[in-house]
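User: Hey, my collaborator sent me this sequence without any context and asked if I could get a structure. I don't really work with proteins. Can you help?
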Amino acid sequence: MKNLPSEHANRFPDLPPAFDRRRRERIPLRLPLRILTYGMLVDKANDGVCTDLSEGGVAFDCQSELNVGDIVILEFHQKGEAAYRCHARLAYRMGRRYGAYFLAGE
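Assistant: No problem. I've predicted the 3D structure and written it out in structure-token form, which is a compact way to encode the shape of the chain:
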């Protein structure tokens, strides 16, 4: 690969620094959860593992095929405590990793 002459070196501005689109701090953790999906014909419960959590959303790993854009119920389990349920919309999928944001008042 040829080097550009020094007169051309400053013609290209520096790229802007990368930024994180998340507005809230994420907390890494490993917590089992159940993903409840409701379809026209079938209701399903899939197991997963929460990998990080914030006030606005969650990332989790799941072996099942889920549809980005769907609204699901996430059920968090802690030993000795009642399960906590919340509605979330699936925002992205990367392999077996999913991201979702919480829906208020659902």
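In plain terms: The first strand starts at residue 27 and ends at 38. You can pass these tokens on to your collaborator as they are.
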